[in-house]
Specification:
- The chain is an alpha/beta fold.
- Helix content is 41%, strand content 14%.
- The chain has helices spanning 21-30, 41-46, 48-56, 76-93, 112-120, 141-151, 167-183, and strands at 7-13, 36-39, 60-63, 102-103, 124-125, 130-131, 157-161, 187-188.
- The strands form two sheets. Strands 1, 2, 3, 6, 7 and 8 form a six-stranded parallel sheet that branches. A two-stranded parallel sheet has the order 4-5.
- The radius of gyration is 16 Å and the shape is globular.
- Bound molecules: zinc ion.
- The site of zinc ion (ZN) has 5 residues, from loops.
């Protein structure tokens, strides 16, 4: 599944939005690294030009449901159709793109039945092992960097959000985190399709 060696995977959830996502793309481009964006379908429909920028920059795209649905609040059928609606948004705005198989459940929560159904439909569920909690108002960039330094291992998946809630903190810590990871010899790669 993942290559061996010192690869780590930066991931960004909840975009794409014009206030934050282009700034993330600028930082990633500055360090010439790629990441994986778990997108919310309705944001793609609202901001197709931002979606296109992510695609054009060569990052990997994952599905994060159509409107950030919490699996435990709905039936498996409703969940699956919401996930399919997100793929439809992706495909509508970029017909030549592959249909994403990467899926991250919002809040990291989906029922057993939902996870089984997603697996049967061919989705690869991707969680994380380093949760920066960049969405918490009390978090400081310093604390987030320390956590990344403490918890990152080869193969780690680091969770950020390109959202309004995470904006300032995340954009401050991101360059520092990338510089530290590169100094430590980590390769920052996209999560592949397989
Ligand atoms: Zn989310």
């Amino acid at each position: 599944m993942f290559r061996t060696g010192k690869a780590v995977y930066l991931t960004f959830d909840d975009g794409p939005i014009p206030e934050v996502t282009p700034q993330v793309l600028d930082i990633l481009a500055r360090y010439q690294v790629k990441a994986t964006f778990f997108m919310v379908g309705e944001n793609i429909d609202k901001h197709p030009e931002v979606f296109e920028q992510v695609v054009a920059a060569g990052h990997s795209i994952g599905n994060h449901t159509y409107n950030h649905l919490k699996g435990w609040d709905c039936s498996t059928d409703d969940y699956l159709s919401n996930v399919a609606q997100c793929n439809k948004a992706i495909f509508t705005h970029h017909p030549s793109i592959y249909i994403p198989v990467l899926f991250r459940p919002p809040y990291g929560k989906a029922t057993f039945s939902q996870r089984l159904a997603l697996h049967r439909e061919g989705y690869r569920l991707i969680y994380w092992d380093v949760l920066t909690r960049d969405y918490e108002a009390t978090r400081t960039p310093e604390a987030m960097l320390k956590q990344i330094q403490r918890e990152t291992r080869p193969g780690s998946i680091i969770n950020f959000h390109d959202s309004l809630k995470s904006n300032e903190r995340m954009l401050t810590v991101l360059p520092q985190a990338i510089e530290w990871l590169q100094r430590k010899g980590y390769r920052l790669e996209v999560i592949g399709e397989r």
